[in-house]
Write a structure and sequence with these properties.
- The chain contains eight helices and no strands.
- The protein is mostly helical.
- The protein has three domains: 56 residues; 56 residues; 48 residues.
């Protein structure tokens, strides 16, 4: 029993402080991910919400921009996976696909807009990256003879921009 309690504590630590996924934690501790899910659910029922603790830890340690960036990154991964499922599913007719894609697009736009309001630096970096990409396309299309020099300059400048918008 003491070993089980130790594994629960380790699971909580890995989830909150190391941001590991539940399946990864289960694998590392030699238990199923369903067991880790149950521990997390039981802890929440007892007043210990691992998700709240995880968010608070991130916010305290990394700042709001990092928290928002992690949430947006997770959302984009889910968004991409969902789009792939919709594209590969044979059981969805064209009209339903269009509705699903419109709904996903709406959710994506809302996520990006809210992330920009909560963490404006992320939004600013996104705009800066978009401008750089558009300039790269412009140079490639209209001044291909300068493309190699542009890329040589663009890479270190991109790093400098990322430092400005951290």
């Amino acid at each position: 029993m003491a070993q089980n309690e130790d594994k629960k504590r380790q699971a909580r630590k890995r989830y909150i402080y190391e941001r590991q996924s539940l399946p990864t934690i289960g694998l590392a501790l030699g238990v199923s991910d369903r067991t880790v899910q149950r521990w997390k659910r039981d802890a929440k029922a007892s007043g210990d919400d691992w998700d709240v603790a995880r968010s608070a830890t991130m916010l305290a340690g990394e700042g709001l921009e990092s928290v928002v960036a992690a949430v947006v990154e997770d959302f984009v991964i889910l968004f991409q996976a969902t789009v792939e499922q919709i594209k590969s599913s044979d059981g969805i007719d064209a009209e339903a696909r269009v509705k699903l894609m419109a709904s996903l697009s709406d959710a994506f736009n809302k996520m990006v807009a809210s992330a920009g309001r909560v963490a404006p630096k992320i939004s600013e970096l996104g705009v800066a990256n978009d401008v750089l990409q558009r300039m790269a396309d412009f140079v490639q299309e209209n001044y291909p003879q300068h493309a190699e020099a542009f890329v040589e300059i663009l890479e270190p400048f991109g790093e400098q921009l990322a430092g400005v918008y951290q």
